[in-house]
Design goal:
Strand 11 (211-213) and strand 12 form a beta hairpin. The chain has helices at 7-30, 37-50, 118-136, 144-157; strands at residues 54-55, 67-71, 74-76, 91-100, 103-112, 161-162, 168-170, 177-181, 197-200, 203-205, 211-213, 221-223, 229-231, 234-239, 242-245. By secondary structure, it is α+β, with helices and mostly antiparallel strands. The mean pLDDT is 98. A five-stranded antiparallel sheet has the order 8-7-9-14-15. The radius of gyration is 17 Å and the shape is globular. It has a single domain (7-245), classed as Creatinase/methionine aminopeptidase superfamily (Creatine Amidinohydrolase, Alpha-Beta Complex).
Length: 251
């Protein structure tokens, strides 16, 4: 069942999203060679709690971090660790969730660490472009597949792999709600209506589509061919005035 959010719920989701955006604003400042993913996790948790919110990811199905920190070939669900220290030329996906007043904001961004190769920079630019192509389709009267197709078209244009096993999702009172959103066209005719909130999150790879889950930690998802992956995500709501990005700084 897809839950449509009231004006009051939307207000709280915007506040949760604002907190997520504050974390990403800080991540842009502090990500550099030499910092550990555990340090990034501690910074994010502090910001979330200082803003009277709860780190949504911490303890979720046993996850041990306030953020997911996924480096290079890691697609999603990387566990923060003091032993994971960023190096020049890496890329890192930071996925953040904040719960405020019982409502969730969920957003991810992939950051370059220092200078990256032209190929990797193109991966980042294209994946971000695919996110905003999907967001443009979050309009009342469109269908879910319009979003999926828009993402897929951008990925295929640049011949990038598309992660198949993971995708976007409804979000609100819990981090994962209906509907599931594929990042490629599957013909889903679910109608988009005002009040629907969806976390749109393309995950694109420089190589193959296929991914594997780390058997030792049970969480970290990496590309099957060990080539880099990028992940960008915004929580977006359908409104009468068009798509509303909730995970951005409020005025």
């Amino acid at each position: 069942m897809i839950n449509r959010k009231s004006k009051e719920e939307t207000k709280r989701m915007r506040h949760a999203g604002h907190i997520v955006a504050l974390v990403h604003q800080k991540m842009r400042e502090v990500i550099e060679p030499g910092i550990s993913t555990k340090e990034l996790d501690s910074i994010a948790e502090k910001i979330i709690r200082e803003n009277r919110a709860i780190p949504t990811f911490l303890g979720y199905q046993g996850f041990p971090g306030s953020i997911c920190a996924s480096i290079n070939e890691e697609v999603v669900h990387g566990i923060p660790s003091a032993k994971r220290v960023l190096q020049e030329g890496d890329i890192i996906s930071i996925d953040v969730g904040a719960t405020y007043g019982g409502l969730v904001g969920d957003g991810a961004w992939t950051y370059p660490v220092g200078k990256v190769s032209a190929e990797i920079q193109k991966l980042l630019v294209t994946t971000e472009e695919s996110l905003f192509a999907g967001i443009e389709q979050m309009k009342e009267g469109n269908v879910l597949d319009d979003i999926s197709r828009a993402i897929e078209l951008v990925a295929k244009r640049e011949k990038l792999g598309i992660v198949r096993q993971y995708g976007g999702h409804g979000v609100g009172h819990s981090m994962h709600e209906d509907p599931f959103l594929f990042n490629y066209s599957v013909g889903d005719r679910t109608l988009l209506k005002t009040g629907m909130a969806i976390a749109i999150e393309p995950m694109l790879n420089l190589g193959v589509d296929e991914v594997v889950v780390n058997k030792s930690d049970g969480w970290t998802v990496s590309t099957a061919d060990s080539k880099p992956s990028a992940h960008f995500e915004h929580t977006v709501m359908v409104t009468a005035d068009g798509p509303l990005i909730l995970t951005q700084l409020m005025p």
